From TrEMBL:
<keyword id="KW-0560">Oxidoreductase</keyword>
<protein>
    <recommendedName>
        <fullName>L-amino-acid oxidase</fullName>
        <ecNumber>1.4.3.2</ecNumber>
    </recommendedName>
</protein>
<dbReference type="InterPro" id="IPR017046">
    <property type="entry name" value="Prenylcysteine_Oxase1"/>
</dbReference>
<comment type="similarity">
    <text>Belongs to the flavin monoamine oxidase family. FIG1 subfamily.</text>
</comment>
<dbReference type="Pfam" id="PF13450">
    <property type="entry name" value="NAD_binding_8"/>
</dbReference>
<dbReference type="InterPro" id="IPR036188">
    <property type="entry name" value="FAD/NAD-bd_sf"/>
</dbReference>
<feature type="signal peptide">
    <location>
        <begin position="1"/>
        <end position="30"/>
    </location>
</feature>
<dbReference type="InterPro" id="IPR010795">
    <property type="entry name" value="Prenylcys_lyase"/>
</dbReference>
<keyword id="KW-0325">Glycoprotein</keyword>
<keyword id="KW-0274">FAD</keyword>
<keyword id="KW-0285">Flavoprotein</keyword>
<keyword id="KW-0732">Signal</keyword>
<comment type="similarity">
    <text>Belongs to the prenylcysteine oxidase family.</text>
</comment>
<feature type="domain" description="Prenylcysteine lyase">
    <location>
        <begin position="131"/>
        <end position="493"/>
    </location>
</feature>
<dbReference type="Pfam" id="PF07156">
    <property type="entry name" value="Prenylcys_lyase"/>
</dbReference>
Amino acid sequence: MMADSHRLPCTSRLLLSLAVGVMRTASSVAASGDAPPGKIAVIGAGIGGSSVAHFLQQHFGPHVQLDVYEKDTVGGRLATVTVNKQQYESGGASIHSLNLHMQDFVKLLGLKHRREVAGKSAVFSGEQFVLEETDWYLLNLFRLWWHYGMSFLRLQMWVEEVMEKFMRIYKYQAHGYSFSRLEELLHSLGGDAFVNTTQRSVAESLLEVGITQHFIDDVIVAILRASYGQSVLVPAFAGAMSLAGAQGNMWAVEGGNKLVCSGLLKLSKANIIQATVTAISLHNSEGKNFYQVHYEDEEGQGSSFYDIVVIATQLHDKKSNITFQNFDPPIAEFPGTFHTTITSIVHGYLNSSYFGFGDPKLFPFTSVLTTDSPALFFNSMDNIYPVNVSSTFRRKQPQEAAVWRVHSQRPLEKQELKMLFRSYYSVQVTEWQAYPSYESSKTLPPIVLQDNLYYLNSMEWAASSMEMAAVAAKNVALLAYNLWYHDLDKIDQKDLMHKVKTEL
């Protein structure tokens, strides 16, 4: 049943809704302390919101009513744009092979991996290419060794060590364990050292393991500019997640990554409410919290009551405009800002001479990363292919008109577009508040805002990706379930590796 299916005058509707909500909650509390929640609200229908709706339905069962509020389109930062009747990824584009939740979602929903179309990458300094990939793996390794010594091997070992510890989260979650604070979650994966990876920069961590400044300036900077649009001052944990993706084994969903979001919401049988949430009010009956979610849609203002609320949208940097009412003490504003990334999808002819290739036919690269140079006005650019790749598809030749995705810190000016492209048919620009500005805050935000009120997006302040959102969603769903049924032995447990081994 959709919330507020019939409308009353605003004041009468709110009074009636409040009375019904109090009676409903009071009766459910009186019936049983372990009665399942009647209604759960999820605010946001991106990968985090759709994942948590799926996991909540999985744990609490099919009888719980799930309402998912979304002011824009399902998918959030997973989005596509249309060029010549073909869709292209304009948001989150790639998924790592070790992302087990995303792998599970694709299998569960009957989706497919998109056919990979090979291409070569290079790093551009604004004057020349400082590193070029070839078709030969051994030659690529030799070039890395020749230019940077053992740095690339040390990098691989460091990233693998971080990822090996991170992968423990899947075992913990499979056994029903959850965490009420990000610090607890990270500590369970790798102790104090792992928590510290959110407090020190990736540059500092890499120098410590013997990676040269030269390698950091040429390669690490380029990767972080392409992924987060930020410098090597991002925290080591976020940096490691980004660098893991740069080592290959990436994939995407046939038809577009956003299909995961719509598929999970359909599977969970959630009610999708197209509305902007304006406020969350705290109420209490017989010592039990419940929440009134206020919203605005095309028909005006409305509200509904919920036993549990999960916020799967950004609260930082005043991005949400959600106010919190009746909270004592009040919910504090979180420090930190979000980083703006501009994505320009350009259909046109590459100006290869800008990169030092007078003959476009000789330009060999499909992906160009950049170093931190004042002369450069873009972070990266990729020759991209549609979300539906047929068996006969071939990538456009460099002298042909192709679709390029350009990431930059600000919208590209016409003169800058002319530097990158000889001519173009169309430019579609999307401004994303894509990632936290990691240098703007050294504190990790809370997961639990109040009893049965959770902030899922706190996870991206440790690292931001589709899989991190899915891990956060599973954690919040387990935490909500464990707290609702008072299973404290499944929350913030120490020495979990030993506990999990003894349970096997």
